[in-house]
Write a structure and sequence with these properties.
Blueprint lengths: L60 E3 L2 E5 L15 E5 L2 E3 L6 H8 L18 H14 L6 E4 L2 E5 L6 E2 L2 H9 L69 E7 L16 E2 L2 E4 L16 E3 L8 E2 L2 E4 L6 E6 L11 E5 L5 H13 L2 E4 L10 H10 L18 E7 L7 H8 L7 E8 L7 H8 L4 E2 L3 E4 L6 H11 L6
């Protein structure tokens, strides 16, 4: 299922255009420099007015509205600061029990962009714009009123329309929790028996990788690919793969929760990143948590990023206007900084190749007190304790750069902590960041989302990842990636 609008490319040339940022994914420590290593909630208050809408024979499930605690309690391990817990009320709505399949998408859009192919596999490699366009086209094909008006990067949502739409972030979490208050809807742990994810990295593995002291933390299967949308058991609401398989685009712009907007919230009025939820087939369990929020540039495509659809149970009121607020200045000859953190040399090699190709300035992110000893253990300690280590050197006049090409190894499904320090030292507003990562087979992890959240105001473009040293084709592959992002080799 899905409609399309091809991923927008913004190129850096006569106009600085940047392609979509790499979406969410998840990866661990290996390879280059690497460690990678239910209770039931109080019964929901049911909203009135759950009349059956037209065409409810489309297989969608009615979810009765109610009030729930959105976000995570401060006691939840590995929670993030953007998960502040607050009460939210959602109206009743209809939801597809399955992620949009490739056969559904191709029937409406006339194409199948997916990396993994199979009629009953979830469609992936679709942008947020593709998802809203699909909803509109599906609505039209079934005689319903499209809910979205699309004008370039600006998209508005008519809450009164009866057509198909994306879930809001609040609706997604309400549906995923299914009246539970635990970390996952099945409790405080999850395995590949009930979700398709990187089962080698269960919830709290980071705290048990070197010294395993929690018997509930057990590894399970890593399938390494998507599975049919009706695979595994559904949650208590009858919804399949709310966790894992593909992360799912939501309507909302990413931003801090507006705790004052407690009824049917729809996210920030503007922004540069859209939310996706649930984690994908290659994510760690921590990114599958009900409260976890991933932020991605809306023109991003990624092979573990798809969506599911919803409809109103009864007409809403008003129009939600949203505006893409990122403003990238045009420049014909962008000034480029190639910044990188490397431990074993694989990322350094890629950075040197990129600097030679582009003529960009090269800057190594070095720690004041470099890691030594067991890298799994020392890097894990910084991650678990949220330590942002001091750096030994700093960029002079960061404001002179238009494009930052940022390299790092994927560790524990994110960036090494020194890279967080680097990103927090400067204002990247209006700049383009193009990430590249060396890894041991786990790709980017959710490092792109973490980068986006840390460097808000920047455009995070389509990234590039490679295993270990990247092989003999690394230079050609890097050149192709740079060209895709509008940067020509000199």
């Amino acid at each position: 299922m899905k409609a399309g609008k091809k991923a927008k490319m913004i190129t850096l040339a006569a106009t600085l255009v940047c392609l979509a940022a790499v979406g969410t994914s998840i990866y661990f420590f290996t390879g280059e420099e690497e460690p990678e290593v239910s209770e039931t909630a109080p019964e929901s208050e049911t909203s009135a007015g759950n009349e059956e809408p037209e065409n409810s024979s489309d297989g969608l499930i009615l979810i009765s509205g109610g009030t729930f605690s959105m976000g995570s309690p401060s006691s939840e391990r590995q929670r993030q600061e953007d998960e502040i817990q607050h009460d939210v009320t959602v109206s009743s709505f209809y939801i597809d029990p399955y992620e949009v399949t490739q056969s559904d998408y191709a029937a409406i859009m006339g194409e199948n962009p997916s990396h993994f192919t199979g009629e009953n596999l979830p469609v992936e490699n679709v942008t947020w714009y593709d998802a809203v366009e699909y909803c509109n086209r599906l609505s039209e094909s079934r005689g319903l009123t499209p809910v979205y008006t699309i004008d370039g990067n600006a998209v508005s949502w008519d809450r009164s329309a009866n057509g198909y739409r994306l879930l809001t972030e609040a609706e997604w979490e309400y549906a995923a929790r299914a009246n539970t208050v635990t970390v996952f809807h099945d409790g405080d742990q999850i395995t590949s028996d009930n979700a398709n994810f990187e089962g080698s990295y269960p919830y709290l593995i980071e705290e048990n990788y070197v010294n395993h002291h929690d018997s509930s933390v057990v590894t399970s299967r890593n399938r390494g690919e998507t599975i049919a949308v009706d695979s595994l058991s559904p949650n208590q609401f009858g919804l399949y793969n709310m966790y894992g398989n593909v992360s799912e685009w939501c309507f909302d712009y990413y931003g801090a929760y507006d705790v004052a907007q407690a009824t049917d919230p729809a996210g920030a009025a503007g922004g540069s990143f859209r939310v996706n939820r649930g984690g994908g087939y290659n994510d760690f369990a921590k990114q599958l948590r009900s409260a976890y929020r991933s932020a991605t540039t809306p023109d991003t495509t990624e092979q573990n990023l798809g969506f599911r659809i919803a409809r109103n149970a009864k007409a809403g009121e008003g129009v939600v206007e949203t505006t893409y607020t990122l403003n990238i200045p045009a420049t014909e000859n962008p000034r480029i900084l190639v910044a990188y953190f490397s431990y074993s040399g694989n990322t350094e090699n890629g950075a040197q190749i990129i600097a030679d190709m582009t003529g960009g300035d090269l800057f190594e992110i070095q720690m004041e007190h470099p890691y030594n000893g067991n890298i799994y253990e020392v890097s894990q300690a910084d991650l678990n304790n949220d330590v942002h280590p001091a750096l030994a050197s700093h960029v002079e006049n960061m404001e002179q750069y238009d494009v930052i090409i940022l390299g790092y190894p994927t560790w524990w499904s994110t960036m090494p902590m020194p890279v967080f320090t680097f990103l927090e030292e400067y204002d990247f507003s209006g700049k383009t960041i193009l990430p590249f990562s060396s890894n041991g087979g786990t790709r980017f992890g959710d490092s792109i989302s973490d980068l986006s959240k840390t460097a808000q105001g920047a455009y995070v473009g389509q990234g590039f990842e490679y295993e270990y040293s990247g092989g003999r084709g690394l230079s050609d592959n890097l050149n192709e990636w740079l060209t895709l992002n509008g940067i020509e080799a000199r």
